[in-house]
Amino acid sequence: MRWTEFFIPTSKEVPAEATVPSHQLMLRAGLIRQVVAGAYTFLPLGYRALRKVEAIVREEMNRAGAIELHMPAMNPLEWWQQTGRVEAMGEVLLRLAGGSDDWRSKTVLAPTHEEVITETARAYLNSYKQLPVNFYQIQTKFRGEARPKSGVLRTREFLMKDAYSFHMTKEGPGGLDEGYQKMYDAYCAIFSRCGLPYVVVEAESGPIGGDASHEFMVPTDAGEDYLVQSEDGKYAANLERAAIAPLPDARDGKNEPLRDVHTPGFKTIEEVSGFLKCTPQKMIKTIIYQAGGEPLVALVRGDHEVNEAKLARLAGTGRVTPADPEMIRKLTGAEVGFAGPIGLHARVIADQAVTVMHDAVTGANKTDYHVTGVNPGRDFIIKESGDIRTAVAGDRAPNGSLLVFKKCIEVGHVFKLGTKYSVAMDAKCLDHEGKPRPFIMGCYGIGVTRTLAAVIEAFHDEKGIIWPPSVAPFQAAVLALDIRDQAVLAMAEKLHNELAAAGLDVILDDRDARPGFKFNDADLVGFPVRVVVGKKGLAEDVVELQVRITGESRKVPPDLAVASVRELLHATKQEGP
Ligand code: ATP
Ligand code: MG
After folding, report:
1. CATH code, domain with 32
2. pLDDT tens-digit map of 452-506
3. Domain containing 304 — which CATH number?
4. Pocket test for ligand 1, best of 153, 410, 421 (most atoms within 8 A of CB)
5. C-alpha span between 222 and 152 (Å, rounded)
6. Mutation probe of ligand 1 site: the residue of 54, 159, 421, 450 with most atoms within 8 A of C-beta
7. Dist CA 305 CA 300 (whole Å)
8. Residue 504 covered by a domain
9. Could you report the per-residue pLDDT of 272-288, keeping only the tens digit for each?
């Protein structure tokens, strides 16, 4: 490929709206162009790289035995109603606008495809003999993200690889556990081949629980998620899920008496602790939720936050939502902001950190009052307690090792769905005994566009992108330093053709431009290896090979250039752990 016949609109300007490196570099290197907030054109160079990621994903999915198909973005609203996801997805589910009888008002743009694939399975998979099966696609997803951000890391329209597996059993040959493991392994292969330094973490899987979900995370400051790892490297989870060891018990048995204190209008932890001159650590935060129409009270230390997923799991309820003010007033007999555990008639779950508190401060269940000298065990009984809060700096993993927090991007997610969708859509299959049973399902997603941006987050420097050879839009660039010099251009063309004939993706920079300009562009675009052909070198019968990631350079006779480039590409190890 000749640069002058291709399209690479590079730019020196750092776009003001781009704050993370991948976004800046994708714009500057001419890979993408924003069309509206959250939707981008992949320009030719960007599209080449995207197709490389796609090809790796496809190869590994095929290798794992998944079968490719392609589902439409347009979905019947009705199927989404059947699974309760019109509500659950809220604003994320994009709907076409139209009159009540118009087809548009009955159509949604799919953010994911469980409904469609479950309907397909219901239609065609009738017997256990047809199982297990795993269908996948690489297809455009639509999501009404509130805040599209960081270029193609979070968009409203993006390319996802989504796979769905169908099984008759959870365990055993052909079961969900086995299918899940295959996908897990395929994901490791995919991200390793993309060169990504990824970490796999346990993720929150909602009511399904257990070890039913893992996320593939790439540590980078551009990420919006947090990865929590123990210092000893033995534990990793996402922030939502990270388990916390109990805090040491520092109680000394000498307790103050209970005392009501007037705290007029002081409601929040900050207000009350400021007014009473105590630290938030001394306060018990009493948060009232509702689950299944009943109040559920969570107690955490004032400086901690309730983790609703952990709470719901411990409570054994599907979901918890904040109680409405009416329920709170009825339960506490006070205005919102003065709730406390003493004398409260409701199910109360205390965080394990609350169980070792003493002489604490909390709401008095009386408007404008708090109580001090509160001692669990003496002033109220904790019947249920456990880990119901989100980890913070200083917390330890269950094995006692200190937790470390890193920002990260979720590039992939594997999930044991169980029968959620098959039950909702009445998708059954006959088992060995001829009895109809709902499919047991797994689902597995990879953000293809996000993965590409994550590669750039992981590999760049102040000059530009540093592509791993596996996903580089071109693995090598031949720079003709002065195209007006016949010998230089002829040699550059020859080497370009030979490299292409050797099966490499190569581009010839044949622009009539200064060497410095070409070097800068090559650094910006980030070709793994470049071959520099100049007049001076040719006089000594050499061309110069430069490796982007190491900066290493070597001079070789033109005859050896192709073999050397291949060798250098092969030796460029830009792989994950
Ligand atoms: P997030 O928590 O980042 O919003 P998610 O958990 O909602 O993502 P999934 O439903 O698990 O995402 O989708 C599978 C994969 O699709 C994700 O792992 C991610 O790589 C990608 N993805 C999800 N949302 C977006 C988005 N808005 N833009 C780009 N990629 C996305
Ligand atoms: Mg996810």
Report:
1. 3.30.930.10
2. 999 999 999 999 999 999 999 999 999 999 999 999 999 999 999 999 999 999 9
3. 3.90.960.10
4. 410
5. 12
6. 450
7. 7
8. yes
9. 999 999 999 999 999 99
